[in-house]
Amino acid sequence: MQPRRLVLGALALGFIAGGINHFLNPRPYLTMMPPWVPDPPAANAAAGVAEIAGGVGLLVPPLRRPAGLGLLALLAAVFPANVHVARHGWPGVRLPKWALWARLPVQPVLLAAVWWAAVRQPE
Q1: Which of 28, 56, 88, 107 is exposed most, by the fewest CB atoms within 10 A?
Q2: Distance of alpha carbon 25 from alpha carbon 57, whole angstroms
Q3: pLDDT along the chain (123 residues), means of 10
Q4: Are 116 and 2 in contact, with CB atoms under 8 Å apart?
Q5: Collapsing DSSP states into helix, strand and coil, what is residue 77?
Q6: pTM
Q7: Whole-angstrom Cα distance, residue 71 to residue 59?
Q8: Nearest to 30 by CA among 19, 50, 45
Q9: Rounded distance, CA 35 to CA 12, Å?
């Protein structure tokens, strides 16, 4: 299997599963939101729908690039919540402080993977 297809499949599966989890297990997402988010339940639902739609879109060739652009925007939008958690802790989630900080570099890796697999024009 081609590496790009493998990455697309892994990204799609991860985003779809993560999006579904926003609805099945919303508490961790709600507790990680910074206090300036005006409506955490609505933000959680919007993020869940966006992840599911983006993940499905990665699997549909005509939708792949727009889905990738949307996922890039989503990843950028949720990064402040990850920084907030690293700085202030994650209520209800038992992770050591170092692990909360170690999560931050995952975001640029995901951004790069989405860009490479879905957004950039094939050579």
Answers
A1: 88
A2: 23
A3: 92 98 97 95 98 98 97 96 94 92 95 96 60
A4: no
A5: helix
A6: 0.93
A7: 13
A8: 45
A9: 30
